[in-house]
């Protein structure tokens, strides 16, 4: 009898151990899921108290965008697509759906929302709200009916809609927005991805700087930082950032200079190459510099501007644009100085 009972006891004990282990595993998984749900709820119910913009429910966003229908897509950025959303009260918004491949944590996402919510300036796109639910992280911005600046200045049909006065006002508006980011806001912010596609135009063609995905906050006395991963758009990134990973306020100044030259020429800067002697900028920067040296600077002008152009303002724009894209950051002006040079009637400006 004992010879039969021994295996039965062993089997019984084994079954009990397996069941206990299984139940423990199920219990632990349930605990983890509950903890994650609790964390998510805490972000919505507690952490959102530090955010100055409203939280939107995912179901409302899905309804406003027809479940992110392709026909509602406004564009595709490096961090995800942007859709036009229309809500029941008639309000419209640009809905930025962050890519699921993004490694941004909930804390990092909240910090980004808090940062953007604090930026209030007429030349910065306004954040209307945010959503985080499951794997979805979404930002809602004010909708810009005229989309981005690049869709006008690089399109041979639409560029005629921007006369010289409009383009000069856009340049000054971008400068005002950057001055606010660099010195007038409560936070000192380097944009790091300033380009014509990130300059949006409202119904009155006023420029608004957008997309702060790569923006970095600087301490009040901090002048530079570095990164091991260079991200941005070739043609706009400064030499010190491309080659060494260093970025500073003057890196945004470089981007501004590129944009100024693109606006007045209607041509896109294409990038760079590195030779044995030094870095050489290609595209419109090289062309602008060559024409400047040969005293043929009017050849740089977009021909659609020939009848409306203010020649004094045009020359100042070329001069300031070239000052801003100088290789050595210390040679570039600050944004406040660049703005003053663009607005002034000073006879002699610094020579790039």
UniProtKB/TrEMBL annotation:
Residue runs in coiled coils: none
Ranges that cross the membrane: 6-31
Residue ranges annotated for the Protein kinase domain, each copy included: 68-346
Family annotation (CDD domains): STKc_IRAK
SUPFAM superfamilies found in the cross-reference section: Protein kinase-like (PK-like)
Keyword Cytoplasm assigned: no
PROSITE patterns noted in UniProt: PROTEIN_KINASE_DOM (PS50011), PROTEIN_KINASE_ST (PS00108)
InterPro entries the record matches: Kinase-like_dom_sf, Prot_kinase_dom, Ser-Thr/Tyr_kinase_cat_dom, Ser/Thr_kinase_AS
UniProtKB keywords: ATP-binding, Kinase, Membrane, Nucleotide-binding, Serine/threonine-protein kinase, Transferase, Transmembrane, Transmembrane helix
Gene3D superfamilies according to UniProt: Phosphorylase Kinase, domain 1 (3.30.200.20), Transferase(Phosphotransferase) domain 1 (1.10.510.10)
Keyword Acyltransferase: no
Name listed for the protein in its UniProt record: Protein kinase domain-containing protein
Organism in which the protein naturally occurs: Vitis vinifera
Top-level taxonomy: Eukaryota, Viridiplantae, Streptophyta, Embryophyta, Tracheophyta
